[in-house]
Amino acid sequence: MTASVNELITTAPGASCDADLAEGPWAFDLSPGYGPGASEDDVIPDPVVRPGQLPVAYQRMSDDELHARIRAAKEALGERLVILGHFYQRDEVVQHADFVGDSFQLANAALTKPDADTIVFCGVHFMAETADILARPEQHVILPNLAAGCSMADMADEDSVEAAWEELMELYADEDTSDGRASVVPVTYMNSSAALKAFCGRHGGIVCTSSNAATVLEWAFEQGRRVLFFPDQHLGRNTGKAMGVPLEQMPMINPRKPGLGVEPQELLDARVLLWPGFCSVHKRFTVAQIDQARAQHPGVKVVVHPESPMPVVDAADAAGSTDFIRKFVAASEPGDVIAIGTEINLVNRLAADYPDRTIFCLDPVICPCSTMYRIHPGYLAWVLDGLLEGEVRNEIVVDEDVATHAKVALERMLAALPK
Ligand code: SF4
């Protein structure tokens, strides 16, 4: 049996990109992780367990004991409970999930379990927020570890986006909008706080995923002259480029600099205004890694996620969402060699699912999403035991006003079908 990513990290010193990961979950949990961008408007859970405060009894339980507790709680809770596991979660958690998918697939999967009164989201904070927005009012959404944020989501906070928006509105104030098209339409990637989804809902904007970004941009260009795309610069640039938008019409703004750090004429000529956010996992992929994979495995097929930098996407054979990558692998032939540029847990799972193919991660260093990694079976067991005791622990509750406006932007997205 192949070793799980977690086993590789904790048993092989220096194997991962972050030495703190090898210290084990409880030590790693003490480092900061719950960023303000992903939580600023949520109702503070009660009771709240801060990072590093999981009861010691759960920290000391063996893996076998934790898995047995989780299975027993699932059995006892039956249809009242649904556990969602993101593709990037470790195997030790995914094995307990009722559904495994990307953030949007999981939010929708929860809707197929109307009898469940609790949704346990094994993913990161913005995903649990989206599930709460789409869930029935009486359903509870739980994030097992509140420190599981998303560094990319935290790179765009509401205040900075509001300030940048005001500057842009001032600059575009004299533009002729008699054709009914707005000067600028805000588009937020799913990987953003509920507050930013609500911002888009309020300002005629929309949410996108990595599967439907091109369709969403087409929609946005029908509504306005240009798009303000946040937080991921790479998804924005890769999508715009694939749609034929010249690079010089996709300037990256700097919300901390006067005039957003871009010449006014460039802002006027822009079609896509990019926010300087990125995913710390996907930005690690390089063209040199692709060259090396091709040198070592002639005929290798390279597929990457569009959160990767543009030169990497350009050099790959294909680029697409996690679901696209899974389908790419499923459509390959036995004996094929496939190098993948996405999070290591998904790559390893695909390698295990297709043992007759050679599947490996482009990044030679093991670099899991360190915030996804914060969901450990210990947290899962603890929140499920809480449900058995009648206590909803680590509940994610999106403010009602935020949820109302965020839903508008999410519903616009639902109407823009993926290509
Ligand atoms: S993989 Fe990147 S974008 Fe996804 S949750 Fe982790 S940090 Fe955020």
From TrEMBL:
- Pathways per UniProt: Cofactor biosynthesis; NAD(+) biosynthesis; quinolinate from iminoaspartate: step 1/1
Coiled-coil stretches are none
**Which reaction is catalysed here?**
iminosuccinate + dihydroxyacetone phosphate = quinolinate + phosphate + 2 H2O + H(+)
- Give the binding site residues for iminosuccinate: 86, 103, 189-191, 210, 305-307, 322
Which NCBIfam families does the record match to this protein? nadA (TIGR00550), PRK09375.2-4 (NF006883), PRK09375.2-5 (NF006884)
Q: Which HAMAP family match?
A: NadA_type3 (MF_00569)
Q: What protein is this chain from? A: Quinolinate synthase
